[in-house]
Amino acid sequence: PGDGVKKAFVRGDRVTAECIMPCGKCYYCKKGLYHLCDDENGFLEGGFAEYMLLPKNALIHKVSKDIPAVEAALCEPLSCSAYAVNQTGMGMEDTVVISGLGAIGMGMLQFALLRNPKRVIGIDTNDALCEIAKKLGAAEVLNPMKEDVTKRIMELTDGVGCDIYMEATGNPASVETGMNCLRKQGMLFIYSVFKKKAEIDLNQISEFKELRVIGGHLSPGAFPYTIDCLEKGKINAKVMVTDIFA
Questions:
Q1: What sequence ranges are listed for the domain Alcohol dehydrogenase-like C-terminal (predicted)?
Q2: C-alpha dihedral (62, 68, 69, 73), degrees to nearest 10
Q3: d(CA 174, CA 60)
Q4: DSSP string covering 66-122
Q5: Under 8 Å CB-to-CB from 117, ≥6 apart: which residues?
Q6: In angstroms, rounded to a whole number, what is the distance separating the alpha carbons of residues 162 and 158?
Q7: CA 119 to chain centre
Q8: Could you give the 3-state DSSP secondary structure of residue 60?
Q9: Which residues pair with 190 in a beta bridge?
Q10: Which burial class, exposed, middle or buried, applies to 145 when counting CB atoms under 10 A from its CB (0-12, 13-18, 19+)?
Q11: At residue 2, does pLDDT exceed 70?
């Protein structure tokens, strides 16, 4: 910076960076939707490393030294979770189902619980992840390899169905499950990246249930909130770490 310009960061600061480097000039960037940039300059890699080289156009955020490094490393995936939950607008009367309890899904579970919904139900085929979700506060955790998930969700909601179904597996079968267990005018929120195309009954969206289908991508604007939650101990990132390579 030139004379008189305050530096945002100084030597020795701990920082993290968003993985996208937007152009700042395209239609979407000017609309504030920089995560949908038409002319992005690529993605940053190395966010889980102790040190990395950041280009001048990287989106950088300061991280308090009070946050342990093993937790600070999860700022990016947790920010994705925070953004996803915020996009649903879930409230205190909602029954929320989160399908997929990996890093993104487990983060969704925790950020959802901060909004005090009626109940949060987790779905995963990994028993170890299901146990972690229970400890974090999930009202119930279901394993589709062991039980009929749709049937159980309908039982828990007195036959009405869940209000919000958040897809975080990348498995097309999970999308179909969501459409089946959602109530009429419920919300299907899809955050995953899929390798296969999904075959769905479009009548579930229109004629039968009038569903709202919303997609999510990256974590625009969510880093500061996520870092604040980590600083205040509102999010348990440590429980999500299985291995450390150093």
A1: 103-228
A2: -70
A3: 34
A4: TS-HHHHTTHHHHHHHHHHHHHHT--TT-EEEEE--SHHHHHHHHHHHTT--SEEEE
A5: 90, 91, 92, 93, 94, 95, 96
A6: 10
A7: 18
A8: strand
A9: 167, 215
A10: exposed
A11: no
Query: What gap in Å lies between CA 203 and CA 197, rounded to an integer?
Result: 18
pLDDT surpasses 80 at 71:
yes
Who contacts 203 (Cβ-Cβ below 8 Å, separation ≥6)? none
Tell me the C-alpha to C-alpha distance, in Å, between residue 77 and each of 47, 115, 140, 242. 10, 19, 23, 15
Query: Are β-strands 95-99 and 162-167 bridged in parallel, bridged antiparallel, or unpaired?
Result: parallel
Distance between CA 47 and CA 27 in Å, rounded? 28
Q: Going by C-beta distance under 8 Å and a sequence separation of 6 or more, which residues neighbour residue 242?
A: none
pTM: 0.93
Residue with tokens 């205190």: 92
Token pair of 142, please? 């279901």
Residue 177 has pLDDT above 60, yes or no: yes
The two tokens of residue 232 are 């205040």
Domains of the chain: 15-76+219-240 (3.90.180.10), 81-215 (3.40.50.720)
